[in-house]
Design brief:
- Residues 1-21 form the signal peptide.
- This is Alpha-1,3-glucanase.
- InterPro entries: Glyco_hydro_71.
- Pfam families: Glyco_hydro_71 (PF03659).
- The protein has 9 helices and 19 strands.
- With 470 residues, the protein is an alpha/beta fold.
- Strands 1, 2, 3, 4, 5, 6, 7, 8 and 11 form a 9-stranded mixed sheet that branches. It has a 4-stranded antiparallel sheet with strand order 16-13-12-19, covered by helices on one side. It has a 4-stranded antiparallel sheet with strand order 15-14-17-18, with no helix packed on it.
- The chain is globular, with a radius of gyration of 22 Å.
Length: 470
């Protein structure tokens, strides 16, 4: 679990001035790569490589080329081996993203980093770029790359998450983690991630040496039951749509989706059903699927790889998202309080139309209903968020092409007694249910007088919603 405040010093300076048998290499005609950040620390209780297959297959079908396996020294070679074996079987690639967050890997011990690369660099699923094993990091500026390569017994293609102003010796470019609006010092703010793109590209000298972040959301609400207590929300709103359009215009050689499965920071696009450990994040993740965001990304990924500046739509769909409550409600039992950045979030419902031909999008949020003339292609619409039913329809003339009512109404009560600034994401046509794995940790550390169980409770209807105080 990353604490993004560890990046503040570097970023302050920067932001101020398909089928399983198909080899992944066949999708690299433009030499552009799409990765997804994968948190290995929360899957350490998996017992076989088969337990990675569903996720890896979903990612491959979306056009993702490789997973960046993020981990610290505590993650075993056994669980890493499961990921590599599954990737080989599914036909996707993986690579290491060493986590230098506080207490994890140390820049003073490059040999440990190199030795782990050495143990996996020749596996069939290892991502190879420019004839070198691809390696990345979370943080870690100052690492002696030559010493890492000496221990690894190989030159590596190294794209670390270092910061403008850091020494680039031994690197092939930099990876920028900050895919959200910020204040330039890793706090919630209004500086767009595109400013980070500019700072990084100016530093490394080329879009070919830059890995850009693409993220849908960032909201976290940890208290003192964990060592990494943190409570904030970065301005997200319509970020997933606007950021993908920026990426198509920018056209860097590498992009990384941040993240596949960081449930604790609400940044996931992978399935809730994937087996993982729960450190209490289920209090704001339960009944909050994000799979629609991965659906929205598919035509954008294809367009990015083709060098296009707009996606071509092969499957018509509506993708919608919204927070489960208005931002102004009070959760009196939540001693963490509202997350900093809450005021930058808008009380809006967001709808993306992926259309082959023009149509009319009809969106209802509570008592608010609006119609939008939607052209062919991908387009974004917003309407004021209101308590009650959320319904979305596509029409052409007087013909209703498709329609669905969300399983989650917007309510004005505090589920689990806490502020929840995560997003609920749905699609029309509706996707299959995606229920959170139950590891029971959600029942701990909820405000006094509240009950909270990690069991699927959709549909949630405003007419029956009550504060969960017992």
């Amino acid at each position: 679990m990353h604490s993004v405040f560890t990046l503040a010093i570097g970023l302050l300076a920067a932001l101020s001035p398909a089928s399983l048998a198909q080899p992944i290499e066949e999708r690299q005609a433009t030499d552009r790569y799409v990765f997804a950040h994968y948190m290995m620390g929360i899957v350490q209780h998996r017992t076989s490589s088969d337990e990675f297959d569903q996720e890896f297959g979903l990612a491959k079908a979306a056009g993702i080329d490789a997973f960046a396996l993020n981990f610290g020294p505590d993650v075993s070679d056994t669980i890493l081996g499961y990921a590599y074996d599954s990737a080989d079987r599914v036909g996707i690639k993986v690579f290491f993203s060493f986590d230098f967050n506080s207490g994890l890997y140390s820049t003073s011990d490059p040999a440990t980093v190199g030795n782990r690369i050495k143990a996996f660099k020749d596996k069939p699923a290892q991502l190879i770029v420019d004839n070198k094993p691809f390696v990345s990091t979370f943080a870690g500026p100052g690492l002696d790359v030559a010493a890492v390569e000496s221990a690894a017994g190989a030159d590596i293609f190294f794209l670390p998450n270092w910061y403008p102003g850091n020494d680039q010796t031994g690197t092939d470019g930099f990876f920028n983690w900050m895919g959200w609006y910020s204040d330039g010092n890793n706090n919630p703010g209004t500086i767009p991630p595109s400013d980070g793109d500019t700072a990084y590209i100016n530093t490394v000298g080329s879009k070919e040496r830059y890995m850009a972040p693409v993220s849908p959301w960032f909201s976290t609400h940890y208290g003192d039951w964990v060592s990494y207590s943190k409570n904030w929300v970065f301005q997200s709103n319509d970020l997933w749509f606007t950021r993908w359009n920026e990426i198509l215009t920018l056209g860097p050689r590498f992009i990384e989706i941040v993240t596949w499965n960081d449930y604790g920071e609400s940044a996931y696009v992978g399935p809730l059903s994937a087996q993982h450990d729960d450190d209490g994040h289920s209090k704001w993740v339960n009944d909050m699927p994000h799979g629609g965001w991965l659906d929205m990304a598919k035509p954008y990924i294809a367009a990015y790889k083709a060098g296009a500046t707009a996606p071509t739509i092969s499957e018509e769909k509506l993708i919608y998202w919204y927070r489960p409550t208005p931002k102004g409600i009070t959760c009196s039992g939540d001693n963490l309080g509202k997350p900093p950045g809450w005021d930058l979030m808008t009380d809006e419902v967001f709808v993306v139309a992926l259309l082959q031909t023009a149509g009319t999008v009809v969106a209802t949020s509570g008592t608010n209903t609006q119609e939008f003339d939607a052209p062919a292609g991908a387009s974004l619409y917003k309407l004021p968020l209101a308590v009650g039913t959320q319904k979305f329809t596509l029409k052409r003339g007087t013909t209703e092409v498709m329609s669905d009512t969300s399983l989650r109404d917007i309510v004005d009560t505090c589920a689990c007694g806490i502020y929840n600034f995560n997003a609920y994401v749905g699609t029309v046509p509706a996707a299959a249910p995606d229920a959170l794995v139950n590891f029971d940790a959600i029942a701990s550390n909820v405000p006094a007088g509240y009950s909270c169980q990690p069991t699927p409770s959709l549909p949630i209807r405003a007419s029956g919603a009550q504060a969960t105080s017992t």
